[in-house]
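FAQ
Q: What does a multi-component entry look like?
A: The components come first, one per line:
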Amino acid sequence: MTELRKLLRHAGLLLLALVMLYPVLWMVVSSLRPNNEIFRRPGLILDSLQIQNYGEGWNALASPFGHYLANSAILVLACIIGNLVSCSMAAYAFARLDFTGKRLWFAIMLGTIMLPIHVIIVPQYIMFSQLDWVNTFLPLVVPKFLATDAFFVFLMVQFIRGLPRELDEAARIDGCGHARIFLRIILPLMLPALATTVIFTFIWTWNDFFGQLIYLTDPEMYTVPVALRSFVDATVQTSWGSMFAMSVVSLAPVFLAFLVGQRYLIRGIATTGGK
Amino acid sequence: MSALGELQRMRKGSRGTLGVAREPKKDNKAAFAFLLPWFAGLLFITAGPIAASFVLGFTDYNLIQPPVFNGLDNWMRMLGDARLHKALGVTLVYVLVSVPLQLACALALALLLDKGLRGLAFYRSAFYLPSLLGSSVAIAVLWRQIFGADGLFNQVLSMAGIEGKGWISDPDSALSTLIVLNVWTFGAPMVIFLAGLRQIPAMYYEAAATDGAGKWTQFRRITIPLLSPIVFFNLVLQVIHAFQSFTQAFVVSGGSGGPSDSTLFYTLYLYQRGFGNFDMGYASALAWLLLVIIAAFTAINFWAAKFWVVYDD
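Then the predicted structure of the entire assembly, as tokens:
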């Protein structure tokens, strides 16, 4: 009886997993089909490989799609570096140092995790356009160097709190200042938290649309999401195959990051309660 | 522990892990150095712009001419702005329908997966993956095809002999397709629920079973109360998150919020005003209204928590 129930549960869960992932699987298969088949074939079996969808999609916009992939890669890399440096510094202060108004600053930091970006986007845009930063990556990157992704500060604070204080104290007795304690002791020990930060920053920045849509209006500066969107608007119904092909290309890095960093992703949202 | 739990405890006044304070304020210089980027971010990127957008909300400003103070004009204009009212309605339906559905799915799946099931890691990954993809433009593109007149959904329906329709082009059903998309991303709260379930000591269940409590009673008396802080946490965050949804509606409707404004999310309307018409004063006022609405919903959630969230400390 219990064996049967177990079996039924697995059958149900597998079915649900299939239903959940089916749209994505179908998109991958459809990206290899001729256009007229996409609207007739709900199944996953391929009779022929329409590889040219990828070639057509790649060259459908003003620049080859590789240009937008490169733009996104540069942006993501810069954001990762910014978050790693600035959030770890802030986290060290909140977790290990004692200073005036700490409780208040900490509460403010936690509050900013929940702040909607739309409330700050208008004045930010005005500021950045006066600095002549529109159509550069600076409006998207500079905030990352200023520890504005408070979620990661919190994640790292949690992690540092779990490290034994004896380590810092021993180092302090040996005459180390805070800079050395941070660089030599805390940073090497918090690699798992840094890895979580890298993977989340990668996926969120890669997928982020709102900020990139607003700040990157010159096609030369388009990143993958903005390019993909202009592709959708430029083509009418006729080239779903190549549009799906580029959609698959744009999701592939996220999928890879998920495969490589699953452990850190799951641990990250399980220990901090996610974003 | 979550950021929210941390805030709640601070509000209650327990000093928690922060209050070490043996030799008070000894690290001020070092702390300032380490926090310098964060302080700059607070000043220029978060708190400063919040204050600035409050002030701009009382002006007429198009980015070219300097802002002109116009008193309460923007706020009065909101009262008669039919598209704003439509956007508010669309967004409220979206939040109030999709968040409970999403959390119910997350909780149900977490409960099914919890009981030492074989293949847990596989299922968890399969259900979690959509929540990483869901906010991307690519998935929104896919949604546009799936729920189009000749889309995948109708192809599947026709195999069952059901005549479909253009789900996205029909104002009555367009919003539902976006709700489905949000429910589809239940994986992230599910992982949080799974972690919470793991924290409930097995001996509680053993003790209850010895006392003759059935599975249902155990679920109602042990699982639900002990999980309630995590349900609350997910609820607060997913509500805040859902109010800010933008990409899906933007891509699915081609930026218009159509058909007939049926997918006009609040953020999409704000974008149209601010970055389509460069009506920055009005957009700032709209942004502040959004902040007030989100804060109000969060406050209601915190207030209602008194009646159903169980804290054991």
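Q: Is there any commentary attached?
A: Sometimes. For this entry: Chain A has one domain: 57-272.
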